Amino acid sequence: MTQIPVTQISAADMAALVDREEHDFADMQRRHFKARAKMSLENEALRASFLGASNFLVGKRKAMFPDDAELSALRNRGEAIRQHTLNNLPDLLQRLETNLTANGIQVHWAETAEEACWLIHNILQDNNARTVVKGKSMVSEEIELNHYLEQRGIECLESDMGEYLVQLAKETPSHIIMQAIHKNKEQIARLMHSRAQTSDGQAVPYSEDVDELIGNARSILRDKFMTADAGISGVNMAVANTGTLCLVENEGNGRMTTTVPKLHIAVTGIEKVVEDFSQVPDLLTLLTRSATGQKITTYFNMISGPKKPGEKDGPEQVHLVLLDNGRSRIFNHDTLKPTLQCIRCGACMNHCPVYARIGGHAYGSTYPGPIGQVVTPQIGGLQKHGDMLSACSLNGACGDACPVRIPLPKLIRELRSEAVNPDVNHLTADSIRQVFNPVLGRGSKRTLGESLIWRGWSLAHRQPWLYRLMTRLLTRGRKLLPKKLGPWTRSRSMPQAAARSLHELVRDRGVANELNSGESQ
Amino acid sequence: MPLSDAASAGPALARSYPVKPRAVYLMGTCLVDSFYPQAGMDAIALIEREGVEVIFPQAQTCCGQPAYNSGYDDEARQVARQQLEAFSADIPLVVMMGSCAAMLHKDYPSLFAGEPEEAQAKALAARTYEFSEFMVNVLQVELTDNSQQPLTVALHTSCSARRSMQVAEQHKALVSSLSGVQLVEPQRATECCGFGGTFAVKQPDISAAMAKDKADNIAATGADVITSADCGCLMNISGTLDKQGRSLPVKHLATLLWERSQ
Question: Considering only the top CATH level, what class is B3-138?
């Protein structure tokens, strides 16, 4: 192994830089959305990382779907499969439980994040498990499992390379597929050198060589796999008819996590169920191509039970924790229900121009980007997470990229409406419509100032005479307009109103104001 | 090959188009009304030249999109109701901007779902066309470039025009049909310019970062003129370039087409 010499920076300085990054991250997470976004925007290296990743991943996905018509048909099938799940969710979950149990997999139901953590901790305690290796699981991030277990003296080690780095750095993932995408090669080299330790307690030699970095992490993790008491993984699809847990991964860490330790605990959201194995290939194709631009991942694990008598490997116990954490509430919401179609591929964030500029940490939530903007306020409430909803220009790129056709822009707009509409009873001229299932924190983002602005705006635009008067004032008084207009003119010049409005020009030209009676197409 | 053939290539669900009508409504939209009124006049000239009468109801105001996109559905509906009234006769409605066209064509049906005006809103949505779509697919215009001067044009198709109305090909077809015009596409052409209506006000820093990248990419094309059928984008991009001291003339698509073909 050739070690790249470090000539410019001492080990102590390197450790200080790594500590500084940890501090900056923690500092950022204490702030509100706008401040977090601003911090990201001002970080040139971060912006370059995210824009580069976006270009790379968008390009890779595109190369995987050369035929628009085929892609469209495949997306239709993906959407249909996921909607089929949602239309039959209670029944499918029962069937899943029955068939998993028949296969020897123990099923647990958790209504909240806290309950899921408690359940997992209990299973670990029952088995005297003190050390855990983890495969990648965003649901375990959602419930903050590592924190919960570490507080109770259980050591959790992330085994996916990205998750491993994020854990070393004491940060959270900035992307749901590429967790450490916010770090460049140099940062990773410093992080590994400063904080990773081989099993005999040695520091990892400094290297900026990607293969070497991965090799170092691999050998550290290999030792842990062999000695860990339990493995915790996520699930990409749970097949109801066969009682099978499917897990997609590239590094082999998922295979190790779910087969080497004696105890395997899988955790997933209740929406991840599919009815039949025949539905798996389409979803898998969509998932891997949309996520990383791969035809297939290196590993596709199908877990159908613990080790059987006479088998040489595999865990002695397999558990599945099915998490609700607000999903039933989403399931019961008429317009927001498609949120649960998500297969967590990350294509929406790769295609989002806002995500490409502010990155994942700015969202301050487990799930960033467009799907995060839709999921997070529904799980964590609009009061806490409603601010991120304004960070969307409704450009529609995410909705176009979504492999299962979640109407993301529509859902973001719908949540904006939930955020500012306090009434649970919706009164219209001729009906009272009740909102039976409001999103947590409905109406909490309504402010008097903003609602007055929109009320005034509405008044001015529903009275044609008033609208024309305002337009007249704007055009006639254009020389009197200020040269600065809030944040708009910080980076743009002031737009120049025309001397006369179109309404006036048209009238002067004698363009008809209405269709002559009796005339039609 | 007629423009309409060029523009219908693609997997998008094809919309069916009526034969050339005797008369159409024109919706200027509020941005065109106060900031780019000449675009409206040029669109009228283009449509009338094809033998179609243009009706411009003075009672029209705004489609209601700013309030709708901000989640103020009631306020949006109150304003939208005014447009249902202003454009009540059963003739096609041509809208000068992609985003407003998308509001009427795509969002009015859900905005009025369960309301007394639901049927009326659906009917208006069905006869609403974005400007370029109407030119290409309904009027099937054949433009002759009568200008002697060669011109390099950077085309910015708005996200609403591209994704909601799916008329990016119509924009290209119209500009490309002008023989003296060289059409150039900036890098990351399909990406949002950062305007997004109230987005630019609520998230000014993110919006400015997006606008800067868009302005850089457009400036890099070396174009003489920027054209778009969405004035929010034009205002955003040209305002950004202007502030940076590298102004480029901007023209609504209708103005470019009329100036070159009259």
Answer: alpha beta
